[in-house]
Amino acid sequence: MSIIRPKIKILDEDHKKMILEEAKSILEIQGVFIENQEAIEMFDQNGINHEGLRYYIPPDLVNKCLGTVPHEITLFDRDGNEHIRLKEDNVHFDPGSAAIFILDEDTGDIREAVSKDFIRFSKVVEQLDYIEAQSTALIYQDVPKEAQDWHRLYLALSHCHKPVVTGTFRKESFSIMKEFLLACRSSEEDLARKPLAIFDACPSPPLKWSDLTTQSLIDAAKSMIPSEFVSMPLAGASAPITLIGSITQHCAECLAGVVIVQLTRSGAPLIWGGSPAVFDMKQGTTPMGAIETMMINLGDVEIGKFLKIPTHAYMSLSDSKIPDSQAGFEAGMGALLAGLAGINMISGPGMLDFESTQSTEKLIIDNEIVGMVKRLIRGIEDYGSPFASDILKDYAEKEELLSHPTTLKYFRKELFLPSTIIDRMTREAWKQNGSTSARKRAKEQVSRFLSKAPLRPLDENLAKELEKITASNL
After folding, report:
1. CA distances from 287 to 103, 176, 275, 330 (A)
2. Residue 2's pLDDT band (cuts 50, 70, 90)
3. Domains in the chain, please, with CATH?
4. Which end of the chain is less crowded, N or C, counting CB atoms within 10 A of the terminal residue's CB?
């Protein structure tokens, strides 16, 4: 067991309480805009005051709903095996959703994605040791627009066994997507017991839950499928420029989501998450790799942890357009801070260009970063004292410790052993191996992964069922 788990915090307990109370006050006094008719009827039945579509949620109702939110979520893979637990400071990564472009590793160009790109991407995700969940990471253009959300889930389930983070673009799509998930389970109850997917739902800043995203929350809650809030305050544009102001707005928007979910079905699982950003005043962009964006994320997560709700954030991504040094340091900083914060689900490996582009090269490099982060948060372990003196006594006999019993026993546990993506060769060996960059080695790794058999081949009967559902809806 580690001596202490490395951690980072940016808010003290007093400010967490102040942010939470102000967020409740915002919902009570300024209210939240609700477009969805089913939610409106539910709010009216619960006597929530409103002016038009702006509803004023009282703090006692917020508190009541917070009291029924589960403190942890266990996700299962396509075959029904327990895969990851979102609780406390457990840290897991997924590639994030939903980029509209792919960085073509053969041409070096950023272009619109097609379904073949997503199949390749999903096959790579399955082979990665440290990216524990997949996502409907790409929006591809070679299927009808009305099928673009549910068709991604079809391909994800067909080519990767890991649990999937997804979401709907149309209200009508949820039932189709649920049908895919049920094909992987024996019943509605089995799906509720063994959730396979998380559905992202994004409120519109400031303080608005749209018709589509609210319906996603309601539909998921009815089936006990986890919803993941992806609140997106844009500091200086659609949220206060102050970081603490954006954190407070995020809190208010997520609290409104908590009320929607818990009024729909008490005890329905949800994840306190987001994709905030600061507004770049020079370029007019939304930099996800900005340190201030990461700080807002950290603050958002600390509020979620304060409420004992599973947490999420978009980190470990970059605003660079290629997997270069900027991509490396932005992804590395984000992954490291997210790991130290103990964020349960971290979206972003593979992503470039303000969340608009996916790169399999970056994804493979990020997998190594994630492996290092996981080693760090495991901490330094105490194997019993004395820590060094007995080992050093044995040095005099051989004048080396490579063959020492403790070295042989512990080196695989103590050391993160990277793949060939990370260059630790001598300069001479590096030259003999082609003097390659990390990006070139990642490109070569893509080909090797795609040539491998699936880790968990898709059951033939399940494949037919997924194809049948697809054919009936195209």
Report:
1. 19, 34, 11, 10
2. confident
3. 1-382+418-474 (3.20.20.480)
4. N
